[in-house]
């Protein structure tokens, strides 16, 4: 597979676990490739147990910093705070999932979070 050296890549483990260079990523964790590894044509070796499922993701880096909290990604703290309010109040911008599962409330931002 040819990888673009200026892009960012990662492997999201959806089931099982993946090991690379002594680092272990378990279910719902992300292993991020460093751009320098790709630019220098370094081999990236992964090992996974049978039955492990992963998603390879990547793309061109964003031009600006983003703030991530829980399931939200935004440009600043105020947008994250509004997303928490909107999610917890069932705002239509998040749509509706037809499920018998209870909707989890978004947690408050940690004290001192910068953004």
Automatic annotation (TrEMBL):
Domain of life: Bacteria
InterPro entries cross-referenced by the UniProt entry: Pirin_C_dom, RmlC-like_jellyroll, RmlC_Cupin_sf
A Pfam family that the UniProt record links to this protein: Pirin_C
Protein name per the record: Pirin-like C-terminal cupin domain-containing protein
Domain Pirin C-terminal: 3-91
Membrane spanning stretches: none
């Amino acid at each position: 597979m040819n990888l673009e050296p200026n892009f960012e890549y990662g492997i999201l483990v959806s089931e099982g676990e993946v090991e690379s260079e002594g680092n272990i990523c378990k279910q719902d964790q992300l292993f991020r490739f460093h751009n320098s590894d790709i630019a220098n044509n370094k081999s990236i070796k992964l090992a996974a147990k049978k039955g492990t499922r992963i998603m390879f993701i990547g793309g061109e880096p964003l031009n600006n910093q983003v703030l991530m909290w829980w399931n939200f990604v935004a440009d600043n703290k105020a947008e994250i705070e509004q997303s928490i309010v909107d999610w917890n109040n069932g705002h239509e911008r998040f749509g509706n999932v037809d499920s018998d599962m209870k909707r989890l409330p978004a947690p408050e931002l940690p004290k001192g979070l910068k953004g």
